[in-house]
Each structure stands twice: as C-alpha cells, then as structure tokens.
C-alpha cells in the first residue's frame, strides 16, 4: 500500500503503477483471509474468483470485498497497456480505492493471525 500511495502522490501522479499496487494489496489481503480460514487460495489474480472464495467465509466483509471486483481490470490495464491502453482512472478514483483498501486491511489484521 505504501508504494501505491507514493506513486499516487507524485507530481504528476503515476496512476497505472498506483492502480497496480492497489490491486496487489487487495489480492494479498483476500488470500490472507483464505489462509487464515484454512482454505488454500487459488493461484489467480482474478479478484472476482478471490472474492467468491473469501466472501462466504467472512460474510461481514462481503460488501467491502465487492468494491475490489474491478481491480482485475486495473491489474490488466496497468501491466499490459498494449491490450487496450492505460487505465484511464482519475487520481481521485485510485485514491478512493486506496482508502478502501487501507480500511479493509485493518479488518483483515483483526481477523488474520499474521502481518498483512
């Protein structure tokens, strides 16, 4: 999350790298929740798949998890711009997502017995 914040707060902001690191942070948190519940996380970056696996185990976090569904697109657009261009998100949208991920991280730390 620190790298996402640093790239986002540069002048000018580096939106694609910030978006990539947002996706990575959310992905790792979902996988941490799966491991904490004793489930093997899928070897995938597909956020919908990870949400579908984690949400039934943590129903109180389902709504927060759903906010991350679009992050698969962010990963693809930021890592493979030749497949359709850059991300196209405004810095404020990425900053809002980063704030959601930070808040989600606090919930994950409360539930998962290891550092995330």
Kindly summarize this structure in a few lines.
With 116 residues, the chain is mostly helical. The protein has helices spanning 2-8, 15-36, 47-54, 62-66, 71-79, 91-111. It has 6 helices and no strands.
Q: Could you please describe the fold and organization of this structure?
A:
This protein starts with a helix and ends in a 5-residue tail after the last helix. With 116 residues, it is mainly alpha-helical. The chain contains six helices and no strands. The chain has one domain.
Topology:
Blueprint: H1 2-8, H2 15-36, H3 47-54, H4 62-66, H5 71-79, H6 91-111
Structure keywords:
6 helices, 0% strand, 116 residues, mainly alpha
The share of residues in extended strands comes to under 5%
Major pleated sheet: none
- The residue ranges in which pLDDT falls below 50 over 5 or more consecutive positions are none
Helix vs. strand class: mainly alpha
What is the first-to-last residue Cα distance? 10 Å
Give the integer mean of the pLDDT values.
89
Give the radius of gyration: 14 Å
User: Total helix count?
Assistant: 6
Shape: globular
Series of secondary-structure elements, N-terminal to C-terminal: HHHHHH
Number of strands: 0
Question: What is the share of helical residues?
Answer: 55-70%
- The count of domains is 1
